[in-house]
Write a structure and sequence with these properties.
Bound molecules: pyridoxal-5'-phosphate
Strand content: 5-15%
Structural class: alpha/beta
Strand order of the largest sheet: 1-9-8-5-4-2-3
Distance between the termini: 31 Å
Oligomer: single chain
Order of helices and strands: HHHEHEHEHEHEEEEEHHHEEEHHHHEHH
Number of helices: 16
Shape: globular
Largest sheet: 7 strands, mixed
Length: about 400
């Protein structure tokens, strides 16, 4: 058993008493689920001053600078910055002029599903793999029929999905493959950055992701035709002569956001490195604890750990994930259930819940067991070590805690 000292953060013999038993939280200050890795005001000042003076606060050079920085790093042919990942998804699907059904996971964030609805496309939910929590390619192929217009995959928690298998399937049936890559900026499959797979991949720069522009999205594609179309759709459908060639929206990113995004982007490597170290510490302390499992990351892949999510088996761990969340809250630690309820059970889509009942057994089961912990560089590794120890001690005391909760 690895133990650490609260005082020094060094590994040694120390045991924590969970706050739910002692009445004293192990973290005196609240640890939120996420905290954006933001630049200092001094880093922004010059660029902000410049655009305030020139008046170029939209359609200026900083959006292009951000696009170019991401393009050269990901080694992808085209990059378009948009105001959100959600609008990026909507516009890519619109530009592809799809009709009919689109295969998607239900175990995702609502925006993946909403993007279909905004395009009058019918979702066909396919279950995830138990190990990776990403779309199961075998089930994807089984779900394809004449009406299937596209596959919309996801790299959950920044862990790349089975891109090569899905690419083969999409080629075989000659349908577009799009990835909601909201979580996955900086993630890799082998030596290739996410952003290069399928017809297009769409990242999010909202504040809960690894880096942020305040709000923002990034469309990456190697398809020049698609790029040209989305570029016009991003600007109302207006190619520049006020004679719209399609029904677009204003999905442009402002220069203010691009400046923040550019500075935040410089922090991506450091943020990912921290999250990898976080993962190493958690695995070191928690891998032997019964009833805690982690999504599998393929050896050749790089996960950016947008989220750190555990799968809690109540029988073995002694507490269910809701009870674990309650314990953590007593120690001032925030958590979320990513993703519960899954999309086919959301109130906005009552019909889906009925028609898909019992067809997504892994999604239904896993969504009741997942718990995502705070993960961000500002947290410091010292607190990560204590958090790992705390979870270990909650497990050790699970019988007493359970009794206390049942009272
Ligand atoms: C955050 C998120 C989005 C939405 O991103 P926005 O930039 O907020 O529109 C879409 N899909 C997934 C999986 C997300 O986590």
């Amino acid at each position: 058993m690895v133990k650490i000292s609260i005082k020094t953060g060094q590994w040694e013999k120390t045991m924590l008493t969970p706050g739910i038993l002692s009445g004293k939280p192990n973290f005196p200050d609240f640890i939120p689920l996420t905290f954006p890795n933001l630049p200092d005001l001094s880093e922004l000042q010059q660029s902000f001053q410049e655009i305030l003076q020139t008046g170029m606060i939209t359609n200026g050079s900083y959006v292009k600078k951000l696009e170019n920085a991401i393009k050269s790093k990901l080694k992808v042919r085209h990059v378009l910055a948009v105001n959100t990942c959600t609008s990026g998804l909507i516009l890519v699907l619109k530009a592809l002029k799809l009709k009919g059904e689109v295969i998607i996971p239900s175990f995702t964030f609502c925006a993946t599903l909403h993007s279909l609805n905004w395009n009058q496309l019918t979702p066909v939910f396919v279950d995830i793999e138990q190990k990776t929590l990403n779309l199961d390619p075998k089930r994807v192929e089984m779900a394809i029929n004449k009406k299937t217009a596209a596959i919309l995959g996801l790299h959950i928690y920044g862990n790349p999905c089975a891109v090569n298998k899905l690419t083969k399937i999409a080629k075989k049936y000659e349908i577009p493959l799009i990835f909601d890559a909201a979580h996955a900026l900086g993630a890799k499959v082998g030596n290739t950055f996410i952003g290069n797979f399928g017809t297009a991949e769409i990242f999010s720069l909202s504040p809960t992701k690894c880096i942020t522009s305040g709000e923002g999205g990034i469309i990456a594609t190697n398809n020049t035709k698609l790029y040209e179309k989305v570029k016009v759709l991003r600007n109302y459908g207006d190619p520049g002569d006020y004679n719209c060639i399609d029904v677009g929206i204003n999905a442009r990113m402002s220069e203010f956001h691009a400046i923040v995004g550019l500075k935040s982007y410089k922090r991506l490597q450091g943020e990912i490195r921290f999250r990898q170290q976080y993962n190493e510490i958690m695995l070191k302390v928690l891998h032997k604890i019964p009833g805690i499992a982690f999504p599998k990351i393929e050896a050749k892949n790089l996960c950016n750990f947008k989220d750190f999510t555990m799968i809690i088996d109540e029988k073995k761990f002694g507490l269910n994930r809701d009870q674990l969340a309650l314990c953590l809250r007593k120690d001032n630690v925030d958590s979320r259930f990513y993703f519960f309820p899954p999309q086919h059970q959301q109130k906005a889509y009552p019909r889906l819940g009925r028609s898909f009942k019992n067809k997504l057994p892994i999604t239904d089961k896993i969504s009741r067991k997942v718990i995502s912990l705070p993960i961000y560089k500002k947290m410091t590794l010292y607190k990560v070590k204590i958090l790992a120890m705390l979870i270990s001690s909650i497990y050790k005391n699970s019988h007493i805690i359970k009794k206390k909760l049942d009272e």
